[in-house]
Amino acid sequence: MELRHLRHFVAVAETQHFGRAAARLGMAQPPLSQSIMRLEEQLGIKLLERTPRGVSLTPAGAALLAEAKPLIAQAELAERRVRQAADELASLSVAFVPMCALRIMPLAIQGLRKQWPGVDVRLIERGSALTVASVKNGSIDLGVVVTSSADVSGLESVVIERLRVVAAVPAKWPVATQPSIRIADLARYPLIMFPQQMSQPLFAAFETARREAGLSPRVTQQARHPYTMLNLVSHELGIGLMLDSARYLPVEGVAFVDIEDVPASGETEVSLVWADRPHKPYHRSMLDIMRDIASPTAG
């Protein structure tokens, strides 16, 4: 039995359909059918029953499926370890914009370590434009950037998250128990905001709501770093406006409340970028892991 025949058989057995299995394997259906026929001929046993809707496993096929899956997994692990042994300085560099991928990045690194335990992942904080330039010149393997802040043309990219602005409120204030709040209502509280040049769409939305409500501005503090803002909020000096990724920063005394009427222009789209060049297998694994983690929330 050849390993490729077992891979083909597992795909057909799991999808119960030759067409879907061929699409999953990235191959045409006729060669896949021939591969299964050769496997059955080698074993002298019928593994699949053809049905009007696809295929079903024979008892022998079910037994082979149970044995084939761990064999394939072991072979793939052996391949990864051999490739890793050939590259003693295996490393992966990922540049990212602060406050982006706070949920995705730790989970992705944990997932990569399970597949490639010897790979050294280097995380580098930097702005979107510099990250894109570094990915293009090859000094960085992968980049996490704010899509609107950099020219990603010439690179492969996929959106991994869309971040909204939320209110970071002192946990002891009554507003912390609300499921949401409007911008005009926020204007009644002392506010802590990032400098205007760092959050122009939010400033514009806030000013419009404030004027419509006839309220005076109460921006009592400005903070350039998220932890500075969260520290001020935890000491009940005001309500901070920040990206909802801040929920993944563990700070006592702070609760997060959704803002109902943040405009679409206030949403921050975050993309994973990489160059279309040959990559090490673990680079490709990291790409796949990050996309899989992001898929439920990036849409």
UniProtKB/TrEMBL annotation:
<dbReference type="InterPro" id="IPR005119">
    <property type="entry name" value="LysR_subst-bd"/>
</dbReference>
<feature type="domain" description="HTH lysR-type">
    <location>
        <begin position="1"/>
        <end position="58"/>
    </location>
</feature>
<keyword id="KW-0238">DNA-binding</keyword>
<dbReference type="InterPro" id="IPR036390">
    <property type="entry name" value="WH_DNA-bd_sf"/>
</dbReference>
<dbReference type="GO" id="GO:0003700">
    <property type="term" value="F:DNA-binding transcription factor activity"/>
</dbReference>
<comment type="similarity">
    <text>Belongs to the LysR transcriptional regulatory family.</text>
</comment>
<dbReference type="InterPro" id="IPR036388">
    <property type="entry name" value="WH-like_DNA-bd_sf"/>
</dbReference>
<protein>
    <submittedName>
        <fullName>LysR family transcriptional regulator</fullName>
    </submittedName>
</protein>
<dbReference type="GO" id="GO:0032993">
    <property type="term" value="C:protein-DNA complex"/>
</dbReference>
<keyword id="KW-0614">Plasmid</keyword>
<dbReference type="GO" id="GO:0003677">
    <property type="term" value="F:DNA binding"/>
</dbReference>
<keyword id="KW-0804">Transcription</keyword>
<dbReference type="Pfam" id="PF03466">
    <property type="entry name" value="LysR_substrate"/>
</dbReference>
<keyword id="KW-0805">Transcription regulation</keyword>
<dbReference type="InterPro" id="IPR000847">
    <property type="entry name" value="LysR_HTH_N"/>
</dbReference>
<dbReference type="Pfam" id="PF00126">
    <property type="entry name" value="HTH_1"/>
</dbReference>
